[in-house]
Amino acid sequence: MLKLHQITLRDEVFVSDREVVRSIVERTGFFRPDEVGIAVELVDERLSRGATSGYHFVFVEVGNAVAGYACYGPIACTSASYDLYWIAVDPRFQRQGIGRLLNEAVESRVAAGGGERIYVDTSGRPQYAPTRAFYEHGGFRCEARLADFYAAGDDRMIYVKAVGR
Ligand SMILES: CC(C)(COP(=O)(O)OP(=O)(O)OC[C@H]1O[C@@H](n2cnc3c(N)ncnc32)[C@H](O)[C@@H]1OP(=O)(O)O)[C@@H](O)C(=O)NCCC(=O)NCCS
Questions:
Q1: Which residue lies with its CA nearest to atom 44 of ligand 1?
Q2: Structural domains in the chain (count)
Q3: Ligand 1 centre distance from Cα of residue 49 (Å)
Q4: Which of 33, 77, 89, 104 is a Cys-bridge partner for 68, taking CB atoms 3.0 to 4.6 Å apart?
């Protein structure tokens, strides 16, 4: 079991996080190569444009290892809605509360930035049942389901959580 004193949160993004993110996202086994590429592009955007990119990161480190990360940011043309673009935990560290910690960290940062709602999309496919269970356990509820959005038989599920509730 993880010991609390081993765990640190980090918001700063380093060039080395390109490979960290690639490795974690790839090894979850959940994402296609093009999706892995997008996860890395979000890091690149942040590295080149800083906070104005609209992509904010939080990393959980256990000792010297990055155990997981989340990427979130304000949704353009909304007053207080945020998107949780990505959340992934290294398979070696899953089911130990790291995802929950990331959710809480994102929520407190969104609240501090004046955000009121966090949205996250996922797939309705059976493979994503654990992901949906994770969001539901974390206080998100499914607000909309768009049939066949990603592909035939692959629905888009839109979850939302009111910040601070
Ligand atoms: C989803 C994910 C981020 C969860 O991270 P995690 O650190 O394993 O989650 P936690 O240990 O904090 O779990 C919190 C709760 O979520 C639920 N949960 C998490 N993983 C679950 C699973 N595989 N099956 C069912 N419920 C699960 C449980 O209720 C769990 O609480 P419990 O362990 O006390 O029962 C991680 O499994 C992951 O990276 N998955 C692949 C990538 C992905 O789907 N990302 C989201 C889409 S971008």
A1: 131
A2: 1
A3: 31
A4: 89
